[in-house]
Amino acid sequence: MDIKYSAAVHTYNRANVICETIDAILAQSYPPSEVVVLDDGSTDNTLEAIHKYGDKIRYERISNVGCGAARKAAVERCHHEWIALCDSDDIWHPDHLKRRTALIEAFPKANYTFSNFGSIGACAKPGYNRLAEAPEGWLQKVAQEMIGDYVQINKPYLAFLEFNPAFPSGIVFRIDVYRRMGGINTKYSRNNAEDTDFTRRFLLLPDVVVAGDTQVTWSYRREADNMSLDQHRNIMGKARILEDHLHNRIIPDEYKQKVSEEILKTKKRAFDQAFYAKAYDDVRQFFKDIPAGNRNMHMYLRYFASLFR
After folding, report:
1. Which residues span the domain enclosing 90?
2. Rounded mean pLDDT, 119-140
3. Residues 51/41, Cβ–Cβ less than 8 Å
4. Which of 172, 196, 228 lies at the terminal end of a domain, its last residue?
5. Shared-domain flag, residues 157 and 272
6. Which of 54, 207, 251, 265 has its Cβ near the most Cβ atoms within 10 Å?
7. 228 has a pLDDT exceeding 60
8. Contact between residue 70 and residue 61 where contact means Cβ atoms under 8 Å apart
9. 151-177: per-residue pLDDT in tens?
10. Which of 197, 228, 259 corresponds to the end of one domain?
11. Burial (CB count within 10 angstroms: exposed 0-12, middle 13-18, buried 19+), residue 286
12. Region 13-27: what's the mean pLDDT?
């Protein structure tokens, strides 16, 4: 298939790693037709770092608007049918887009795709594999069809509610579907887990066809200063965005009960994670976010313990 990909990269103060990201994009065995780099008002030497690429990339700098709005700006400056997202500190493996093309050949109706991923960086987990964290039997349960390593997902909203395998740097989608979805909502631009809104609204489209590559095709950077290491806040960020979706009636009636159950479960997980991280201010705040009737004894014990830390 002759697929033209636009690689959409947004960046903020990642001069120390962005060249590694761009090098990996330009070295693809199936190269993208354009690489858009959107600088979200970096205050470091990002421009100097990427100057060497010349016309191999399209660079634009804007005033700082936050992660979600910067990603939106990058996407909406792209010109081709398929948009391949990449955060500016993550790394595509050499065959990332070649395998994505094979996935689309396997499932030609797919319009939202993802791939499995590993991790890199000082805080990386050796041998990490995102799909290995899925609940036992999850893939077999949600698979509508499998062709080799490639899978089409049945009832993708509910499948991703149970377990999300799609993180931004592995997502490739059709631009027309993005437009019908309404694009990225900048309301959540600076929120933890801001991509929760983007992903969930995609999955609610009646004509969305979701397919994934079960093989690891990219790596997620984990460093001490990486926002994603703030795990308890990211977990709670997801819960609050889902809660907002319920409040704003984005969720269909038939999904509301399951979403409500997931919100509660996610809030409890955020509370536990905050306690393990010794983020006691967040422990106290998260405790208040959980309805009294859903608190158990160990939560009360952890809450009271946090008052004396």
Report:
1. 5-228
2. 95
3. no
4. 228
5. no
6. 251
7. no
8. no
9. 999 999 999 999 999 999 999 999 999
10. 228
11. buried
12. 97
